[in-house]
Every structure is written in structure tokens, then in C-alpha cells.
């Protein structure tokens, strides 16, 4: 008999997904969910890496984005920062009011300007405060 795992979405991943969608309300957005599986067969989504805000049917772009994400050594540290805040809705309203969604960068933005950090490391730090 196959056992199913419970999936929990962490605050950071949730906020970054919403910010990505809020920045590009006219488009479909997609990204990568990073997870950790604990000993209780629970999958904990710890982070979200925004990739595209356009129709993605170009395999080379997706492969390039996945390569860059997989090569980043700091991603292994993300699981250490998982916390749950039951007041996430209040925090979401606040960051949307402050227009923080304008700060999130996706891989599309990175392709236009390689200085743009599509891993959003600074944004992630500020959201975890």
C-alpha cells in the first residue's frame, strides 16, 4: 500500500508565489517549489524560485533556468529557515500595501539583465523578518 505525504507550504514560499503573481497580474506565472521531506513523510515547501511570467513553451529557457537553480550552492541552506507564522494573511496585506511585489525578480527578468537576482536572496531575508 502506498502512503501519501502531507504537503505544507511555508510562509516564505507562499509570500513569494503571491508576490510573483501580483507583480505580473496580466500573465501566467510559474516557478520552482523547493521542499524538504521530514521523517513523518511530510513534504514542507520551504521556498519558491520565480521563473517566468510569459508563456513557457521554450524548452531551452526552462532547462537553462533549472540549471542555474540547481547550481546555486545557497539553496541547500534554505531548509534551515522554515518557520510558520499563523498571521501570514496580515503580513501579506502589509507587504502588498507596501508594494513589495515590485521587488521580486524572476528568471525572465534575469535574462534581460543578468545582474537581477532571480533567487531573490535579499527579498527572502526581508520576508523572514
**What percentage of the residues does DSSP assign to strands (E)?**
15-25%
Number of strands: 3
Number of helices: 5
Count structural domains: 1
| Backbone structural class | alpha+beta
Q: Could you tell me the radius of gyration in angstroms? A: 15 Å
Task: Tell the overall outline.
Answer: globular
The string of secondary-structure elements, in order, is EHEEHHHH
* Percent helix: 25-40%
**End-to-end distance:** 42 Å
Instruction: Give the averaged pLDDT, no decimals.
Output: 82
> Order of strands side by side in the largest beta sheet?
1-3-2
Uncertain runs with pLDDT below 50, 5 residues or more?
Answer: 76-84
Largest sheet: 3 strands, mixed
Describe, in plain words, how this protein is organized in 3D.
The chain has 129 residues and is an alpha+beta fold. It has one domain (6-127). It has 5 helices and 3 strands, in the order βαββαααα. The chain has helices spanning 11-23, 59-71, 88-97, 107-112, 121-127; strands at 6-9, 30-37, 42-52. It has a 3-stranded mixed β-sheet with strand order 1-3-2. The radius of gyration is 15 Å and the shape is globular. The N and C termini lie far apart (42 Å). Mean pLDDT is 82; it is low at 76-84. InterPro entries: EMC8/9. It holds the Pfam family UPF0172.
